[in-house]
Design brief:
The chain has 401 residues and is α+β, with helices and mostly antiparallel strands. The chain is built from 7 helices and 12 strands.
Length: 401
């Protein structure tokens, strides 16, 4: 073997050994703790984190060590939490957290926090599990949280979530919404060590679907249908096309809107403990008003019917109320998404503002234009009436006496 070949072989073996050492250094099985030994450990799939635990099912005692690597600054918080609702979507709401905040002296502050909503700043407070021996360490850019929790009798698995985020002073701020943070959750079998991970953010996709369906139907098609009915019918050449366009637009909005309403109900039923009461209430009112409008179409009276004026008043009042509430609820929905995932939907909100602004501008221009047409038409009709009937209204001028 030549010297060059030997050098290549040595270099390859060196690279391989370095890779193996690096790989082995990143597994929980090579991690040890002074005066603590755990029966099971798991390399968590996100955020370079590891969980070690010993579980006594008879007593419900769960002793854990949660290690999070890559914390290069004391200006970050770290948390590990159990969600007693046993749901992955969303796993954060209702989670009972153990929080550690590194300090400059190397001894992190460790405390418990119950997460009630997405706007939490991880305020210190009691959690629903008895906790003993809560402490934390910060060494070699790694935060480790130690604790013993007492779980309810018969617990064999749990949903847990782990995160890290920035600090403002000593106050935890919102964590990142990158994929690694969104998927830092799983269902863990405490006995076997196996887990079920979240396969993508299916709940967020359903939220997106719900938002798009309702924004397009109630928030865009409904106002467009109203504009068609109010302004196109002024043009005699557009009759009866405007009516069929109006019905088509509003019927499409209702059908798509009912689909969006159904996805909203499903999201609500899957979100135990998460309440968006105002958004939900307005959505139910919109569904009822939209349904009333559909029934009103079947009860539409002839133009010359003596009660048609009352039908018109009802139809217009319910229609405009529906449009106003629809637009308000679309923005309420954007606020809901913002609470869930931060400001990533600002572009959606801005796009909707642009669309509604454009429809509003079109409505203002058409309002002015149609009034001009109506006033000219009335003036022309008055002239014709005046010329046909004469000064005294009987078709002839008064005779000279």
């Amino acid at each position: 073997m030549s010297m060059l070949s030997m050098l290549r072989l040595v270099l390859a073996l060196s690279v391989l050994s370095c890779a193996l050492v690096t790989s082995s250094a990143q597994t929980c099985r090579n991690q040890t703790f002074s005066n603590r030994v755990f029966t099971t450990c798991r390399d968590l799939p996100q955020l370079t984190a590891y969980l070690h635990w010993t579980y006594d099912q008879a007593s419900g005692k769960l002793e854990i060590a949660f290690k999070h690597a890559g914390i290069t600054s004391t200006n970050r918080w770290v948390a590990w939490a159990i969600n007693p609702r046993n749901t992955l979507d969303p796993a954060m709401i209702g989670a009972q957290a153990l929080v550690a905040i590194p300090q400059s002296n190397g001894s992190p502050r460790a405390y418990t926090s119950s997460i009630a909503n997405t706007a939490t700043q991880l305020e210190e407070g009691n959690i629903s599990y008895p906790v003993e021996g809560l402490s934390a360490t910060y060494q070699n850019n790694e935060v480790t949280i130690f604790a013993t929790l007492t779980l309810p009798n018969g617990t064999t698995s749990l949903v847990h979530v782990w995160q890290d985020g920035p600090l403002s002073g000593s106050t935890p701020q919102e964590h990142s919404h990158e994929t690694s943070h969104q998927n830092s959750k799983e269902t863990l079998n405490l006995l076997s060590g196996s887990s079920t991970q979240a396969t993508g953010n299916s709940r967020l996709k359903r939220r997106n679907t719900h938002g798009v369906l309702n924004a397009v139907s109630w928030g865009i098609l409904m106002p467009t249908g109203a504009i068609i009915a109010r302004y196109l019918k002024v043009f005699k050449s557009a009759d009866p096309a405007w009516f069929y366009l109006h019905v088509t637009c509003q019927a499409s909005a209702y059908i798509v809107g009912v689909s969006g309403f159904g996805t909203g109900l499903k999201l609500g039923s899957d979100s135990k403990g998460v309440q968006y009461d105002t958004h939900r209430t307005i959505g139910i009112i919109l569904f009822c008003l939209g349904t009333l409008q559909v029934f009103a179409l079947f009860l539409r009276l002839n133009k010359d019917h003596k009660y048609r004026v009352y039908w018109n008043a009802y139809h217009h009042f319910v229609g405009y109320a529906t449009i106003g509430l629809s637009i308000a609820n679309v923005f309420k929905g954007f606020n809901t998404l913002e609470n869930y995932v931060g400001d990533r939907y600002d572009s959606w909100r801005n796009a909707y503002i642009g669309i509604i602004g454009a429809l509003g501008a079109i409505a203002v221009l058409l309002e002015a234009y149609t009034w001009i047409i109506v006033l000219k038409r009335r003036k022309s009709e008055n002239k014709m009436s005046h010329g046909a009937n004469g000064v005294n209204g009987y078709g002839s001028r008064p005779q000279q006496v």
